């Protein structure tokens, strides 16, 4: 708006414009409570986010994971879980995942992929098989047939040994030599003198030829004896092989008897049959596990917290699919181990050991084939989790590697399990700031999380949406087994939602706030013995909420009561105006008036912002002051510099001031100081302005009006009191009932303006003034009775005085 155009008058609002009542037009007149309303399965007003989720769940390619953006309390998780519970994926197969021993390398356990729901069945079947073998195998080697066969082999060996040694003994005897063998395998050869061994004298009496003959015979017999001993060793090895073959044949007969039904049962699962075949061969190679009687030697092999069976042949079921067709896992605390699983250590008689049976699953294992939901900030807070998650999503494999091995410099021996194929959708919940940080600093994020589900804060308020919202309220009531709300209580809660959205045309989608209000209203209703939640119960719950968080508000209001904070709500003062501000705590915000004062002194047309000079003013506040300075220069300084410096401050403000919602109030205070026209103290004003003086919307308009109204009650009410707001804030009005009633009775007023001059006219009681349309800047004169005219005259007189001096 050009500065030389006369502004229209401010609009005085009536009570109907201050609060939009919920009529529930779309509900049947027969519907008198939430008991007659069908609960809403979806979260109301989040169609955009739901479409994004549907798209991501329908596409199978890598990288189409979801980042759900929105503040806490919007029902992101609830909407996701409700949608996913109804989601029926097409062409989707789930599996049970197990780890079993790798018979070739026990350090690298193998993955067993079984049909969904058969993992535990297979585990129990193998356990039964092992328990049977632990009993049956020793029995197969403890019977007369086995002993008879073993004795036969032993007798055959002994017979061969005896024949060979007997023949050598006879040959030695014929040569006059006695051959004797001990049980320890030692031998002795002695020359005979007839039937008796030669003594030293008789042997010396022999001729040299006879003695040489004895020595030659003995040497020859020793050579033959060594050959027989080698032959005996070969016979013993042959016996051992035959015994081993016999044992394996006995064990094989037992194994085939027990394992064949198991193979037949799982014949349609090739991985299970392959494992059973490998297990059968391994048992034959390790029969001592079943036959060894020494408990000390077998303690570690059987060490188990569960059953008395060899650990080597257990089946570790990592994931067993239940009745659900689609795994949905919510991970509340996403640490590295809780996500990716881990390998436990066990202790047996002071020995620490680990094996495949001690591998434990993580959330990614449980969600494999489905969806895993997590909070983004929690994922980023825990060390190594984000990198591990990206690595798993890129490779589409779940590699259960030891975190200790990843971060340690030592080469500690650990397991290296075979990776499990990963097919999972990740849904991260987070706010906009976290999303922007990931987009900016992590190039992998955009590749792996290609779908953004952006949750709305508000939705349009129409008769149809109010009906949907009523069903949403009904769903909360039904889900939590609360007392039902009557029709008026439903309407009051919808009005509260509109107040939360700070817009008559919108409804808040912060479902957590609505759910909390319903819980507290339900408590109030039950406490009063009511059978339904009524409007008084909702009002009581709202009062209770405010009471719990309003300590700071009460303290500030007390300062107005006892006069500690100076404020005037009656009379007129030059250069002093009541502006409105909002104070926010973590869970509450409220409005209060602030006194702004402006004084002038000879200068160069500057506006000295004291808040900025003492570093209590924020950048936005400083911008607002500069904008109003530009406006004042365009109105009063077109032909010559304004020969005044204006000093502007928030009185009794000892903390930071930011925002530009006081710029119109500051402009009016400066005009009052320049023109020396008094400002009404019974009117407060809020609103920012641009360089053309146009009023711009601000936030917290309801709280600001209510804050001034409360101070007026403290200082004394008069029928002329009121608040000036920007016309663009009219749609944001959802005021308290006592203020609406006061306006209806003419005891309080709210004006809506489009230009700062309309506020000046209300506050100063004179027209703002305008320049003739045909006047040039050098000829422009405001009407002498107008506000700008009076200011112009004072400035002209001051300029003349300066020239005279």
Going by helix content, strand content and strand pairing, the class is alpha/beta
- Low-confidence segments: 1-7, 296-300
* Count of β-strands: 31
Strand order of the largest sheet: 1-31-30-27-22-23-25-24
Average pLDDT number: 84
Percentage of residues in strands: 15-25%
Radius of gyration: 48 Å
**How many angstroms does the end-to-end distance come to?**
38 Å
Bulk shape: elongated
Largest sheet: 8 strands, mixed
Specify the number of helices: 28
Portion in helices: 40-55%
Family: Belongs to the peptidase S16 family.
GO molecular function: ATP binding
Coiled coil: 218-245
InterPro entries: AAA_32, Lon-like_helical, Lon_proteolytic, Lon_Prtase, LonB_AAA-LID, P-loop_NTPase, Ribosomal_Su5_D2-typ_SF, Ribsml_uS5_D2-typ_fold_subgr
Question: What does this protein look like?
Answer:
The protein is of the alpha/beta class and 805 residues long. It contains 28 helices and 31 strands. The strands form 10 sheets. The chain has an 8-stranded mixed β-sheet with strand order 1-31-30-27-22-23-25-24, sandwiched between helices. Helix 3 (119-140) packs antiparallel against helix 6, helix 6 packs antiparallel against helix 7 (270-285) and helix 23 (619-636) crosses helix 24 (663-675). The radius of gyration is 48 Å and the shape is elongated. It starts with 10 loop residues before the first strand and ends with a helix. 35% of the residues are buried.
